[in-house]
Amino acid sequence: MIRLLITDDEQIERDGMQLILTKNFPELIIEQARNGNMAAQMAKEFKPDLILMDIKMPGMNGLEAVEQIAADDPGIKFIMVTAYDTFDFMRQAIKFGVKDYLLKPSKAADIVMTIGKVLKEIEEEKRTLESSRQEMQSTRSLVETDAVTQLLFHHVHDVRVDQLIEILDIQSADEMFTMLVLLPDGEDHFYPLVKEKVRQTGNGWVGALTGNQLPVILFRKPGQSFRGQASTLAREILSIAKSGEQENWFVGIGSVYESLDQIRQSYKEALMAAMDTAIPSKFRFYSDVPVTGDLSEEPFADQQEKELSDQVRHGEWQQVRTRLMNLIQHYENKGTDLLQSQQRMLEVLWIGSRVMREMGIETITPLYSYQTYQYRQLRSETDALLDRMKQTYASHNKRTEADTIHQIKQYIIDHSNEDMSLDTLATKVGLSPIYISKMFKEKLGINYIDLLTECRIEKAKKLLGNPEKSIKEITYEVGYHDPNYFSKVFKKVCRVSPKEYRRGILGRAN
């Protein structure tokens, strides 16, 4: 809705103007001010998009009011309503950015035409601003997901994590921690709702949904306790579930650390806190888990996690089994508490299942069916869970078509004029965003955005051959929202601007 403020010292003039505007522009929100001082005050409270300003008023005149209001809010537009049609008036009005002026008295048709022209300009600016905001929000969401992925899972991407954090421009606190939200299996539609809850706090980053696991990195709020902040957000997230349907929801909360370099430790702790989901509150702090231990001394270090991830990715299941059985043997030899060993093995199995989901393989989150009381039982149960993962992996490979890359490329080509994020593309083709990104990089040597840009520019080249189409029209037709941004991308790809390219091909045609 567009807000308009009528400023005139004569009541009859204000009411007459409002009557004309209400009749011709019923969607307008209109307020009145009887002098310049009142207009300056209302501009702060009412926040109009357009002000109709009489020039001759007692006290602060119209031009003085425009100067003061424009200094506080340069985005407000003005139309002067005056009986003075002089060059000096126009020179001053233009100096303050006045869009147009109406002479007293004016015909209703002239009023509608002049104001309507400025209203259209305001509407177009609002549409462009909203489109830019949505594009920025989409870009920020992808950067946020990428930052969490790199920090928690040691994935290597084209942009380093420090650069991603700079893009996000979040005021990082001195302390931070991780939450792991377990959603009901197959209920992906809860993901944006959880993300919105975190976004409302203004101090968290949400990672990618892998199966039913959603990692969240949170920054400490000044003046609020860690447990208070975490408990409040956990309850807010759990409130998304309908009454009586929280059984399959759970939130594990890791400990607080002082550096992003340590945040992965908090994630491991959140995993441990989420292992047993039977408690009534449906969220647990790692510090409240009965079995404790120093996870930093675990033999399953980062290098071993990378090796395990590669083995799962390549389907080397015998090597995976050997690695897990050796790890159980290590715990037994060390005399580790059996429940603690079961917790640590569950963490390792979750790493494997996460890798499978990143590959686009739908798999059930591994969970032990009971608490083991002998290491022999732990081996048997771990072997059974591993065998189930292996079978899921094999079944997926049989169903996967050899032309997956071709299908994705064809979809991008056919829909390149539409708004397309990696998440949107992943939903359309039924694969994980991370998997698609890695597949493009490994198989084609490019990012999906490179192919999308190439398709849009090729379409633009063809359209530029039609002299009846403006560059602005072509911008929207190929999928961009800002002609200036389109021109920059076009010049980067083609080494010439759209105008220069058009002159070249039309010149050859003649």
UniProtKB/TrEMBL annotation:
Extract the InterPro entries matched here: CdaR_GGDEF, CheY-like_superfamily, Homeodomain-like_sf, HTH_AraC, HTH_AraC-typ_CS, Sig_transdc_resp-reg_receiver, Tscrpt_reg_AraC-type_HTH
Segments forming domain Response regulatory:
3-119
- Cross-referenced CDD domains: REC_YesN-like (cd17536)
Swiss-Prot/TrEMBL keywords: Coiled coil, DNA-binding, Phosphoprotein, Transcription, Transcription regulation
Q: What sequence ranges are listed for the domain HTH araC/xylS-type?
A: 406-504
Q: Which domain of life is it from?
A: Bacteria
Database matches in Gene3D superfamilies = 3.40.50.2300, Homeodomain-like
- Keyword Heme set for record: no
Does the keyword Transcription belong to this entry?
Answer: yes
**Positions where 4-aspartylphosphate occurs in the chain:** D54
Coiled-coil intervals, chain numbering? 115-142
Indicate what this protein is called per its UniProt record: Response regulator
